[in-house]
């Protein structure tokens, strides 16, 4: 009887582990599919920008870009990838205090990037570069604005992770949540490297 019970328990345990593994696999696959679809959206927008980058209709264009300022903002965003890695590493060691610190740092760096982008857009509007000014303006705001929305969503996700951690609801078995948020954040950073190169550096 005891042997049978032990075997049943082991079978049940193995089945539970397999079920958890399947769920983890499905969630990771779903995230990669989502990021792949987003990559295609960005690819289409980048292609549109390249097509219209010289079509300013006589209005302002890339001459308004302040490369040093945008480079500094880009550096801030890229540094957030490092803090995200440190947050994930700290969570793996179950150091929740350090995890919160690095998650907050990542969110603040993302918010700083967004503040810089808003300031840049404000200056461009004052100089006459608006979405309806020209195909160049439309393509520029569509691409960079779409990326900005992704950064904003990432900041919200990071903030949610911090709140869950502070209230004790970010458990040791929640590592997948941190990992998926990290994947999303790294994707946003990588996309910005491409956008910064195509939109700003190729215009010089």
**CATH homologous superfamily placement:** Cytochrome c oxidase, subunit III, four-helix bundle
Helix content: over 70%
How much β-strand is present in the residues?
under 5%
Structural category: mainly alpha
Shape: elongated
Outline the low-pLDDT stretches: 1-13
The CATH topology comes to: Four Helix Bundle (Hemerythrin (Met), subunit A)
Q: What is the count of distinct domains?
A: 1
Question: What is the second-level CATH architecture?
Answer: Up-down Bundle
CATH class: Mainly Alpha
Please provide the count of β strands: 0
Work out the helix count.
Answer: 5
The separation of the N and C termini measures: 79 Å
Mean pLDDT: 87
H-E string: HHHHH
Describe it for me?
The chain is mainly α and 204 residues long. The chain contains 5 helices and no strands. Helix 1 (2-52) packs parallel to helix 5 and helix 2 (67-92) runs antiparallel to helix 5. It is elongated.
Please give the structural blueprint.
Layout: H1 2-52, H2 67-92, H3 96-126, H4 135-166, H5 175-200
Give a quick summary of the entry.
Helices cover 81% and strands 0% of the residues. The chain is mainly alpha-helical and 204 residues long. The chain has one domain: Cytochrome c oxidase, subunit III, four-helix bundle (Four Helix Bundle (Hemerythrin (Met), subunit A)).
């Amino acid at each position: 009887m005891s042997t049978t019970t032990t075997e049943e328990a082991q079978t049940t345990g193995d089945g539970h582990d397999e079920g958890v593994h399947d769920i983890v696999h499905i969630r990771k696959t779903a995230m990669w599919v989502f990021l792949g679809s987003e990559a295609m959206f960005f690819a289409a927008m980048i292609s549109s920008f390249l097509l219209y980058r010289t079509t300013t209709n006589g209005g302002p264009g890339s001459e308004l870009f302040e490369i040093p300022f945008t480079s500094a903002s880009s550096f801030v965003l890229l540094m957030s990838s490092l803090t995200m890695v440190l947050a994930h590493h700290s969570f793996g060691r179950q150091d929740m205090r350090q995890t919160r610190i690095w998650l907050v740092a990542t969110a603040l760096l993302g918010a700083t990037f967004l503040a810089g982008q808003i300031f840049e857009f404000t200056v461009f509007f004052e100089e006459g570069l608006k979405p309806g000014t020209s195909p160049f303006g439309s393509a520029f705001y569509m691409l960079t604005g779409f990326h900005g929305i992704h950064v904003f969503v990432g900041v919200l996700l990071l903030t949610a992770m911090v709140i869950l951690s502070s209230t004790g609801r970010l458990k040791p078995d929640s590592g997948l949540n941190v990992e998926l948020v990290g994947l999303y954040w790294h994707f946003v950073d990588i996309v910005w490297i491409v956008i910064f190169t195509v939109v700003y550096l190729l215009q010089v």
